[in-house]
Structure formats: structure tokens, C-alpha cells
Write a structure and sequence with these properties.
Blueprint: H1 3-55, H2 62-82, H3 85-93, H4 99-117, E1 121-123, H5 138-162, H6 168-184, H7 191-224, H8 229-255, H9 265-291, H10 298-328, H11 330-341, E2 347-349, H12 352-380, H13 386-406, H14 412-439, H15 450-455, H16 461-493
Antiparallel strand pairs: 1-2
Length: about 500
């Protein structure tokens, strides 16, 4: 065999080996990619634990604080992965924001809301569901709060994995209730308070869905179904933007400004009315300018709702950071206070480093794991466009205002997802109504069979049932997990 032939065979073997190696490298990258996000999350949790060890190294019970900080970081990651999707999902589903843009805006405004407008004081007994005298012993109190923190984080993690948006606040409520029952029996629970919270499971999503459907009905009747859509949009879009500005000003005054000054519902409504009117007047010339030269079709109207929808998503994230992050890190703040001062209090101040854990953890969780739930809320329940997504955001703000006025403990998750269901079911009803109006004169062979109409449903029933089931079992599931963890912790230390 000639040297030339040997060289050719060698090159062919080398090419074949390199080709195999490239396949192996590609396969390795494919397998390793899913491990990147958990790896970064684990690094964040470890850094948080080390930072807590440095801050509280002088304490004799340093291990408890470090463990609480680690589980607090884990909780914050799960909030970012699950809860924040409700604010950004509609805007992404309507193509008003890219996934990257939504994650960036949510991370910034959630952190700003938590650090600038988050509560100074948080109720460690989670809205009064447990009698504080029943868990007055410091050691029992610490293990109860630790169990509540771990169970809420585990439940939210499981819900994210199965693709169900659940309430962070209700998960914490369930965790505190389960630990309280395990520590002091059923008598420790304030059952009237729990019945009010249970009522909110039904009231808040229904209210959010009805309000979102009413605004969509308004947009359809006053803009979309008009002969001159652009002229109708020039008249109504500034009014709708003014309502949005007023609603969010009231929402933020109630939920975000309490750190600076106490504001009652009447004052908040006055602030909202004033800012809403100013926004309406400013928006009139801007919408007229933007509407100039647009074609008389629905696609043109969507352009006018794009920017207001992005702004509403950012404001929802700020308000969520101001309100829900404090609730989520409440058990961590309670553990730190009890470990440092040796007393179990019903209300404690939130140290700035605890809020930083919440803010950064939410940002990491959203970036690493949030896209799954954002896609679920934004596009997999029902098809959203800027008008429908705008109705969802607007209903979320208005529902929280009404609930605050009525004194109902509501969940932003339930309201936002309820709004998505509301616009979807309204579209089904409206499509059916218009089909019946237009089919009266059609020959029988042109009419759509009832079975075909059912197949064309605009809300995915499988997702609907999964989410409702997750909502119903959130509190009892978190309570059972928490009770088991508390008993295990108590047994290990006794």
C-alpha cells in the first residue's frame, strides 16, 4: 500500500473521529444545558448562606439563621419562577414584549418595588391565622416559621414544575397554618380568618375575570365593531389609558406608599382620579399623532395599546415587589428576629439584607425558570393580543383596589390568571353570539355543527382544570408539608 493511500486512510479515519467527537460535544452540550439554571440557582443559595454566616457569625445559634437565609433564598427563587409570570405573561403573549425584555423589566421593577416601597413591618403570623400566644416559646416559633418557609417554597417549586401558577401568599398562609396546628393543635387557628381567605380563592379570580371581560366588551363594542375604527380609537384609547393610570396610581398609593405615609382608600382614590385625568389629557394629542395614517383595521388598533400595556406590566411588577415580597420573606424576618432577640413577636421589622435576598432571588428565579410560566399565562391558556392583555392588566389593578376596600385578602396570581380566563371565556361567548346572529339566513349546509363549535373553544380546558385544582389544594398541601417538616425538626432537636 502506497504512502499516499495510507495518508488518505488516516485522514478519513481522522475526519470520522472528529465527526464523532463533534457529535459527542453537541450531545454533551445538550445534556449539560438543562443543568445550567439549577447550577446558577444553587450558587445563589450558597452565596446567600455564606453571607448570612458572615453577618451573624457571632451568634451562638448562627446555624439557624444561615439555614433560614438559605431557605429564604430558595423561596425567593421560586417566587420569581412562578408568581412574576402573572405580571409579564399577558404582555409577552400579546407580543408587546419579547421574553428577554419582559424578564429585564420585571427584574428591575420587582427589585425596586421590594427595596423602595416594601413594608418596614411584616406580620409573622401571616394575617392573623394563628394565635401568637400558642407559639410563644421561641424555639417552637423558630421551627414553625422554618417549616412554613420550607413548605411554601417546596409547594411553589412543585407547582412551577407542573406548570400551574399559584399564590405565594396562600402558600405561606398554608405553611404557617400547618406548622401552627402541628405545634399547638387545631385551636391555634383562627378559623373565621381562614374562611375569609378561602372565600377569596373564589372571589378574586371571578372578580378579575368579570372586570377584564367587561373592559374587553367595551373595547369591542366602542372600537373594534365600529365602522371607523381609527376615529373610535382616537376617542376611547386616551380614556382607557387614563383609567389605567388612575387605577395604578390608586393601587400603588394603597400598596406601595405605606412605607412613606399611611394612605386610606379615599385619599388613594383622589390621587388616582387626579393622575388619571392628567394622563387622559396628555394622551389625547399623543394618540391622535400616533393614529395618523393608520389603516382602518384591527391590526392598527393593536399598535395603540402596545406602550400602555408595557407600562402596565412594569407597574404591576413594582406593586408586586412592594406587596408580595414582604409577605414571602416574612417567615425569614421572623426567624432572624427571634434568633437575635430571643422573643417571638407578632410583627417584626424586615432587615434590609432580608429584602435584598427577596429582590435578588426573585430576579434570578425569573431569569432562570420564569419563561415556562410566562408562556403558560401569556399564550397557552388562551390567545392574547394587546387589547386583551391590556384588559387583564387593568382588571388586576382595579380588583385589588375593590378587594382592599372590602377588606378581602386577595392573591395577585388568582386575579391576573382569572383575568386571562375572563377574556378567553368572553371571546367564546361573543363568538357564539355573533355566529348565531350571522347564521340565521345561512342554508343548513353552511352552518357549523355544535361538535365543531365545541372543538373551536378559545380557552384550553386542560390548563383551566389544572390551575383550578392547584389553587384549591395550595393551602392544604402547604399545610400538610409544613406540619410534617415541623414535627421532623422538633423531633431532631428535642
Amino acid at each position: 500500500m502506497s504512502d499516499t493511500q495510507n495518508d488518505a486512510d488516516h485522514l478519513e479515519t481522522l475526519d470520522r473521529d472528529l465527526h464523532r467527537f463533534s457529535h459527542l460535544e453537541t450531545a454533551t452540550q445538550y445534556v449539560a444545558r438543562p443543568m445550567v439554571a439549577p447550577g446558577i440557582a444553587l450558587a445563589f443559595i450558597i452565596v446567600t448562606g455564606l453571607a448570612a454566616a458572615v453577618l451573624f457569625g457571632q451568634l451562638p445559634i448562627n446555624f439557624i439563621v444561615v439555614a433560614a437565609a438559605v431557605f429564604g433564598a430558595y423561596m425567593a427563587l421560586n417566587i420569581g419562577a412562578n408568581d412574576v409570570a402573572n405580571n409579564m405573561g399577558p404582555a409577552v403573549g400579546a407580543n408587546a414584549l419579547t421574553m428577554g425584555g419582559a424578564i429585564a423589566i420585571a427584574a428591575i421593577f420587582e427589585s425596586l418595588g421590594a427595596l423602595l416601597a416594601g413594608g418596614d413591618v411584616v406580620s409573622t403570623i401571616s394575617k392573623g391565622i394563628i394565635d401568637p400566644t400558642t407559639v410563644a416559646d421561641t424555639q417552637v416559633f423558630i421551627w414553625a416559621m422554618m417549616a412554613a418557609l420550607i413548605s411554601a417554597a417546596l409547594w411553589i417549586n412543585l407547582a412551577t414544575w407542573i406548570g400551574a401558577p399559584v399564590s405565594t401568599t396562600h402558600s405561606v398562609v398554608g405553611g404557617v397554618m400547618g406548622a401552627g396546628i402541628a405545634a399547638a393543635g387545631l385551636a391555634a387557628v383562627s378559623w373565621p380568618t381562614m374562611s375569609t381567605i378561602a372565600a377569596s380563592w373564589v372571589i378574586s379570580p371571578v372578580m378579575g375575570g368579570v372586570i377584564a371581560a367587561l373592559f374587553l366588551a367595551l373595547i369591542k363594542s366602542r372600537i373594534i365593531y365600529q365602522e371607523d375604527k381609527i376615529a373610535a380609537a382616537r376617542r376611547w384609547v386616551p380614556i382607557l389609558v387614563g383609567i389605567m393610570a388612575g387605577a395604578f396610581a390608586t393601587y400603588l398609593a394603597l400598596k406601595g406608599l405605606n412605607r412613606v405615609v399611611k394612605i386610606n382608600i379615599g385619599t388613594a382614590l383622589l390621587i388616582g382620579t387626579a393622575l388619571g385625568t392628567i394622563t387622559w389629557l396628555i394622551t389625547i394629542p399623543l394618540i391622535r399623532k400616533k393614529a395618523r395614517g393608520l389603516e382602518n383595521r384591527n391590526k392598527s388598533i393593536k399598535l395603540l395599546f402596545g406602550l400602555p400595556l408595557v407600562i402596565s406590566a412594569a407597574l404591576l411588577s413594582f406593586a408586586h415587589g412592594a406587596n408580595d415580597v414582604a409577605n414571602a420573606v416574612g417567615p425569614l424576618a421572623a426567624i432572624v428576629h427571634a434568633a437575635e432577640f430571643g422573643t417571638a413577636e407578632t410583627q417584626v421589622g424586615i432587615p434590609i439584607w432580608v429584602m435584598v435576598i427577596g429582590a435578588f432571588g426573585i430576579s434570578f428565579g425569573l431569569f432562570l425558570f420564569g419563561p415556562k410560566l410566562i408562556r403558560m399565562v401569556g399564550s397557552q391558556i388562551t390567545k392574547l393580543n394587546p387589547m386583551r392583555a391590556y384588559c387583564v392588566a387593568l382588571s388586576a389593578a382595579i380588583t385589588v383596589i375593590v378587594a382592599s376596600w372590602l377588606g378581602l385578602p386577595v392573591s395577585s396570581t388568582h386575579i391576573a390568571v382569572g383575568g386571562v380566563f375572563g377574556v378567553g371565556f368572553f371571546r367564546e361567548w361573543d363568538t357564539e353570539r355573533r355566529w348565531r346572529m350571522n347564521s340565521d339566513g345561512r342554508p343548513p349546509e353552511r352552518r357549523i355543527a355544535p361538535e365543531e363549535r365545541r372543538r373551536r373553544r378559545l380557552v384550553r380546558r386542560s390548563h383551566f382544570m389544572t390551575i383550578i385544582a392547584a389553587w384549591v389544594i395550595t393551602v392544604p398541601a402547604a399545610a400538610l408539608i409544613s406540619g410534617g417538616i415541623f414535627l421532623a425538626l422538633n423531633a431532631l432537636t428535642s
